[in-house]
Amino acid sequence: MMTSLLVRKPLVELTKGVNGLKRYSPEVRGSSAERVNSFLVSSKAIFKPPKAIRGGIPICFPQFANHGPLESHGFARNRFWSIDKDPPPFPAATSSRAFVDLILKPSEEDLKIWPHSFEFRLRVALSPGGDLMLTSRIRNTNTDGKPFTFTFAYHTYFSVSDISEVRVEGLETLDYLENKERFTEQGDAITFESEVDKIYLSTPTKIAILDHEKKRTFVIRKDGLPDAVVWNPWDKKAKAMADFGDEEYKHMLCVEAAAVEKSITLKPGEEWRGRQELSAVPSSYCSGQ
Ligand code: BG6
């Protein structure tokens, strides 16, 4: 029998668990302390359902934000998931990764608000070098012949030293949606001096977040997820959020690999795959890659 657990907590715990990487490889880049601090979890985060945890990497499914009739970001981030105790192995070439497979299937209650049967397999894997890879496989298991449609995001809360010293590379000159209106980004790398909530469209598969103060760069590589959401609530919205510290916006940035503009449709038996790989490297290491 599978064990029930709250996926939101394990994702936080697993990312803390990169400490354990030392067991897998002597070649871990950066200190374990640096690794542990890669993701922000708010000091005011609420770990009790039905509130989503403010931080880590919430999974937005089957709806991103308020782009549909469901609760914000869909229900997957608020559910108990199961661990698959006998998961399919990785291909031989990547078998050195440590991983866990988490499974979500809809409950009777979920079917009342979103009447579609699915199996969601989330593989959380760590490479020997310390990269975190999340692979979502979502399968339509409807037996009534009906397709379903969804939007999706890995809502990653990156921890940064000072948001005003951070820049994001890879999104310049792209189109984006803001309050559902379309604009085009002008100029160079994205920097931050006020609230931002944008959905960049048709983005490259690699995006970099440069943290000058820490001399650290997060590299996001993604597959099957054409869009990238960039969010920081800034001071006023931060104050209005009960589960977020007033000053925490200064030390976080969400860059979310996503499929929002063009929703995904699956016929019965079809499967979709969306992957996000995260590495944290010294800034000089990243330049020119
Ligand atoms: C971001 C959205 O992904 O998540 C924002 O772009 C939203 O619009 C933010 O405010 C936080 O959402 P929530 O539901 O976790 O408060």
TrEMBL record:
Its EC number is 5.1.3.15. It comes from the Eukaryota. It catalyses: alpha-D-glucose 6-phosphate = beta-D-glucose 6-phosphate. The keyword ATP-binding does not apply. SUPFAM superfamilies: Galactose mutarotase-like. Keywords: Isomerase. It is an enzyme of class 5 (isomerase). Belongs to the glucose-6-phosphate 1-epimerase family. This is glucose-6-phosphate 1-epimerase. It comes from Datura stramonium.
